[in-house]
UniProtKB/TrEMBL annotation:
Protein name, per record: CLU central domain-containing protein
Signal peptide per UniProt: none
Span of domain CLU central: 43-259
GO cellular component: cytoplasm
Organism classification: Eukaryota, Sar, Stramenopiles, Oomycota, Peronosporomycetes
SMART domains xrefs: TPR
Source domain of life: Eukaryota
């Protein structure tokens, strides 16, 4: 045909303009706004699954992970975003690239697809094992020198040149027959044997470059460990292992793996492989129940507890009628009800609802789900308010462990959880533990100056309770400088910090005077003890001399 019957050039050009405008809007507006929300802390995805949901809710496809990582890298270089953002993005790209690598390997060989255990172990060891030694490279290079027939070459690496063969002369009486040498069958090399650590990382980096247009900066940089450009302590292999297993359907043994060894995984560590499928089920079983849930949470944030309670109760009844109690919306409804009851003063009811939400999240989503960790943290808050601080601290520690497993130690929420744990310890009089928790909170908090100021203020109060007014004054001076830099001199928080500084200064001076008086009294007591000791010695000496004189007189009389 001389023309495209199904394509109108005008319509195609208009469609291309619309697509270009949408792409430009996505690149210049949507993605920078998403990064800005992460930078401000408005959204904080706890793992790759939460990151995927957030990106899809904002209309961003996962192929833009590299673009987001590039923006996060630039912001991190100027101290404008948390470290965990780039760590989470690179771990997600690695997990997705490993899925494609594993699919290519399994599709290339039927035998490997039938028994994939060896390939899985090799891939895991190649990613998580230590760097290969030079001796292995030498061994592989010496192995490459072997000829096709399995024999090594002569000295100098040269083989004798074959003699040219002349064509046989035509003779009637004799015929020369040349019998070729038998070639040995080529060794069958399986796909698994070709997967070493170097090959795996080369294929992964190529996959990430082609799919996400990004070059890894944190992973596979062991050879550049002396370089100042390579950040240390940013590779969290447990986080990547968890996400990699989620993406590929792997189940591994729960134990402490030695990632410093070259082969941290053995074939027995892989307990199973399960299919990972996509479904078309609706996110919410009943749209009306979802609307009521959102309205109830909105009234809760506005402080209308009675209205929020009614809406959430109606939502819970509708969800129970449609899908039963086992649904994520039911768990979210129970969490919201627990918050309403907590603010209303019904601590027992709040604890019961939060325990129900925790059980639902654990059964439906798993023990390492990010909402399960937040459910532990909320339950700890309610238990502490009810006077069960020992149980509350245990739930807080569980929440911190789960969040470190999901997002790594630089996740911002971990800093606030350590702060809450310090407050709990401080309320029950455990000052030493409170100071340790507050110091850990300061160590984990990277960019939040307000959180740092509040933590330093609580450390000052803890030192004041323990009698260390000089240390309390030093901490409160830091609080004053942070609040003054952030809000100015006229802010009420700055004024309050000034009052605390004056109070701690006064108590420190009184403590110093008291110490001087105590030292003077102790010195006087020491002098008095010395005088008493001297008098005692003199009395004993006089008594001894009298006894000697009496004995001498008695001997003279006799």
């Amino acid at each position: 045909m001389k023309y495209n019957a199904c394509v109108d050039e005008t319509e195609a050009k208009a469609d291309e303009e619309v697509a270009n405008d949408a792409a430009a809007y996505l690149q210049n507006v949507v993605i920078p706004a998403f990064v800005s929300d992460v930078r401000r802390g408005a959204i904080s995805p706890a793992d790759g699954f939460a990151l995927t949901e957030l990106m899809h809710s904002c209309g961003i496809n996962m192929r833009y992970l590299g673009r987001i990582a590039s923006l996060a890298k630039k912001l991190e270089s100027i101290g404008g975003i948390s470290k965990y953002t780039l760590e989470l993005l690179e771990a997600e790209m690695l997990a997705r690239a490993t899925k494609h690598l594993l699919a290519d390997v399994l599709n290339a060989d039927e035998a490997t697809r039938a028994a994939p255990g060896d390939v899985l172990v090799r891939i895991l060891n190649g990613i998580f094992g230590a760097a290969a030694l030079k001796s292995d490279e030498d061994f592989s290079s010496s192995k490459a020198k072997v000829g096709n027939n399995g024999k090594k070459s002569d000295k100098g690496g040269k083989q004798p040149a074959p003699q040219p063969q002349t064509p046989a002369k035509k003779r009637k009486s004799s015929v020369s027959i040349v019998i070729p040498e038998r070639e040995e069958p080529a060794a069958v090399v399986s796909v698994a044997e070709t997967l070493d650590a170097k090959t795996i990382w080369q294929r992964l980096e190529k996959e990430i470059q082609s799919r996400f247009d990004y070059t890894l900066t944190l992973w596979n940089r062991e050879e550049d460990v002396d370089s100042t450009e390579v950040p240390l302590g940013r590779v969290h292999k447990t986080v990547l292992l968890r996400r990699l297993c989620q993406r590929n359907g792997l189940r591994v043994v729960s134990r402490n793996y030695d990632f410093s060894s070259r082969e941290p995984f053995q074939i027995d560590d892989i307990t199973g492989v399960v299919p990972v499928v996509k479904h078309s089920l609706p996110a919410h079983p009943l749209a009306h129940a979802k609307q009521l849930l959102e309205r109830g949470r909105l009234h809760l944030s506005g402080g209308s507890l009675a209205t929020a309670y009614e809406l959430l109760q109606e939502t819970s009844a509708l969800l129970f009628q449609v899908c039963g109690a086992a649904h994520e919306d039911a768990a979210l409804c129970s969490t919201s009800l627990a918050t309403v009851l907590y603010h209303a003063g019904d601590l027992a009811g709040a604890i019961a609802q939060q325990q129900r939400a925790l059980a639902l999240y654990t059964q439906l989503c798993g023990i390492d789900y990010h909402d399960t960790a937040f459910a532990h943290a909320n339950l700890a808050l309610f238990l502490h308010a009810n006077g069960q601080t020992d149980v509350a601290v245990a739930h807080l520690r569980r929440a911190i462990y789960l969040l470190e497993l999901c997002a790594g130690p630089h996740f911002p929420e971990i800093s606030s959880l350590y702060f809450k744990m310090g407050m709990m310890c401080q309320d029950v009089g455990q000052i030493t533990l409170a100071l340790l928790c507050h110091r850990e909170s300061l160590k984990r908090g990277e960019l939040d100056r307000i959180q740092a100021a509040n933590t330093l203020h609580q450390m000052a109060l803890a030192c004041g309770l323990a009698g260390g007014f000089r240390e309390a004054l030093a901490y409160e001076k830091k609080v004053y400088s942070l609040f003054k830099e952030a809000f100015g001199e006229d802010d009420p928080r700055v004024v309050e910090a000034t009052k605390f500084m004056a109070k701690f200064t006064e108590r420190a001076v009184e403590g110093a005077k008291g110490r001087v008086e105590v030292d003077a009294a102790a010195q006087a007591d020491a002098i008095a003890h010395e005088l008493l000791a001297e008098l005692t010695i003199k009395d004993e000496a006089a008594t001894a001399s009298k006894k000697k004189s009496k004995k001498s007189k008695a001997s003279k009389k006799h």
